[in-house]
Amino acid sequence: MSKSSITPMMAQFLEIKSDYPDALLFYRMGDFYELFFDDAIAAAAALDISLTKRGKHLGNDIPMCGVPHHSSENYLLTLIRKGFRVAVCEQLETPAEAKARGSKSVVKRGVVRLVTSGTLTEDSLLSARENNYLCSFSVLRDDSAFAWVDVSTGDFHVQSCPQVSFGPMLSQLNPAEVLISDTNYDTFIDQTNEFGTTLTPLSPASFDSSSNNKRLCNFFKVNPLMDLEILSALKYLH
Amino acid sequence: MQIDASTRRNLELTQTLSGSKKGSLLDVIDRTVTGPGARLLEKRLSGPSTCLNIINPRLDAIESYTSNNALRLEIQNILRQTSDIERAFSRLSLDRGGPRDFVAIRNSLRKGQELSLGIIDINSDLINNAKENLTGNGEIINLLDDVFGDDAPLLARDGGFVRSGFNKDLDEIKKLRDDGRKVISSMQANFISVTGITSLKIKHNNVLGYFIETPTTHAKKMLSDEFSSMFIHRQTTANAIRFTTVDLSELETKILNAGGRALSLELEIFDQTKSKILRYSEKVLNAAKALAEIDLIIALADIAVSENWCRPKLDKSRKFKIVSGRHPVVEAALQKDASGVFIANNCDLSAGDDGDKPIWLLTGPNMAGKSTFLRQNAIIALMAQIGSFVPAECVEIGIVNQLFSRVGASDDLARGRSTFMVEMVETAAILNQAGENALVILDEIGRGTATYDGLSIAWATLENLHNINNCRALFATHYHELTGLTKNLKGLMNATVSVREWEGDIIFLHEVKKGAADRSYGVQVARLAGIPETVINRAKEVLEKLEHADQGGKTSALIDELPLFNSKPNSFVKPKHLSLVEEELKDIHPDELTPKDALNLIYKLKSSMK
Question: Which of A179, A189, B201, B535 is deepest in the core (most CB within 10 A)?
Answer without folding.
Answer: A179
